Amino acid sequence: HNSRCPTLPWASRLKCQVCWFPLPFMSTPAETPKAGWCQAQYCLRCAVRIGGCLLGIGGLAALGVFLVIKGSEETPDLTNYMGTPLYSLQASGYKGMAYGPLYVPMQSCIETYSPNCSNIHNDDIAAPWARMMWSAEGRNDLRDLAVMGVNMVRTYGNDPGLSKKEFLDELVTNKLKLITGFSNVWYMDAAEGCIAQDFNCYSVIKDAFVTNLRDGEFGRGGNYHHAIEVISLMNEPNLVIGWYSESKNYMKAIVTAFDGVLDAEKKVGMKAWGDGTLPKFTATWSYADSTVPCHAPAKCTDSNQIGVCSSDFFIKDPVECGPGFTFITQMYHVLQDPQGTIGYSPKNDLAAAFDSRWIHSINVFNKLSEIQEQFLVKFASHPGLVGHKVYLGEYNPLNYVDVQAAARDLRSIIDRSAHPALVGAAWFQYQVAYNKRGSERDWGLFELEAGKTIGKTGYVEGDSIESHDINCLKIRNLELTHALAWAYDGWRPTLNTCDRRLRCVPAGSSQIAAEDDAGRDVGASNLGTCKLRSADGDRFR
């Protein structure tokens, strides 16, 4: 435009350049205009443009004020557990992920399993020793899960004496909820488990849960942490415990454990949140079809299994049996008469607690149409389960359907179009389980990058090694990652891996610089949140 206003002073021509933009009703004449015409063009165009800028700035300012106010309204107070959680999954549906990202004792475990790969000293990844996996200072797993649209994580290991406060706070910060649970050690360990009490698990589980509420900081001031949605008493007790006798079996273990956690709440003084709600309890059953492992030789078949769909095993009618469903109906009947079924006199009204505090869950790897036909129809029609809800504690049907079909089914589960009683699912699973062998390694949305680490674990008391490497993650199946993000209304995450994350490094006694993994300087504009640290020569993130 400078050439179209040749007679204007330099300063005016500069303004003309800065403010110029074409308008359809203001075409410039072909001949060279006079200075006055250019000045008028300059004034009008600048007025229009400045007016538009002011309107835009005003709109952005108003939006900013709204977001600040809205953000302050929804910023959680992480210093106490009082009040009401900002959100509940009962309304939005469980968009979950089974999350158990253990470290590898040796880097070779990533490629090949050996017995030492199972040498994990502590599997409580919610404890402080694992913070470099899930915190913003490390690999930032929880942020990446939130980006994908996940709103709930399911964890497995639980050392009651280790604080979970930082992990729970990180969940709330990322608007995630937690399904936590008890480790199998409290049931099956010969020294500490209730197997030594013929599976009367009341005292063992009560004591463990009191420790969870106090030392594990599940509770504070009589309230649960806002991140806690569900507490699972055990994962697949029908398979892990099985059947010994009428008075020593998986159902006795879960019913007595349920009584134990309710009394633990009373001992610690737990009370409802501001909206009158409390976390739910569950036991997650496998999708086995009415058989369990048998430890009673006189009753066992050649396959060491025993059928449990009969009156001998608390079933009133064969219609109550089916994959996963058998165990739910067994529990319902046992809770109506604990003394007459398993020989136990409860301290609490377990039948009432079953209606108010229990949510059902099953692990299932079948396609959705089979779950609907084999399980949900029966679940919805049982008179003792009216108003009860169920979620899929582990779900992955990829042995039977393709990725796109699995994603569509997952989405229909979450929005409850699959069935109104089915409130969601936890996809199995986040990371490959390198502490397992064979087909157990086939599951995992992400895998570890061999030889590439992003930090170290903290020290675990009793471990012979001070710390273990935390490897970077990489996407194992890009199509599946995209499909799950679509099902969860999220985005594919950009992982904080070694190759993609900038690091801050000391550049001198009083300076810092940013570089990528290859040591290339990426400039001061990429420093981001780097903070000055003493120049000790070590890289830091």
How would you describe this structure to a colleague?
There is one protein chain. By secondary structure, this protein is an alpha/beta fold. 32% of the residues lie in helices and 16% in strands. The strands form 6 sheets. The protein has an 8-stranded parallel beta barrel. It has a two-stranded antiparallel sheet with strand order 4-5. Strands 7-8 form a two-stranded antiparallel sheet. α1 packs across α2, α8 packs across α10 and α15 runs parallel beside α16. The protein starts with 9 loop residues before the first helix and ends in a 26-residue tail after the last strand.
Layout of strands and helices, then pairs:
Blueprint: H1 10-19, H2 35-74, H3 89-92, E1 94-98, H4 131-134, H5 141-147, E2 152-154, H6 165-173, E3 177-181, H7 185-188, H8 202-214, E4 219-220, E5 223-224, E6 228-235, H9 237-240, E7 243-245, E8 248-249, H10 250-268, E9 280-286, E10 291-293, E11 305-307, H11 325-336, H12 338-342, H13 350-357, E12 360-364, H14 368-381, E13 390-395, H15 403-414, E14 422-427, E15 446-456, E16 469-475, H16 478-487, E17 503-506, E18 512-515
Parallel strand pairs: 1-2, 1-14, 2-3, 3-6, 6-9, 9-12, 12-13, 13-14
Antiparallel strand pairs: 4-5, 7-8, 10-11, 15-16, 17-18
Helix pairs in contact: 1-2, 8-10, 15-16
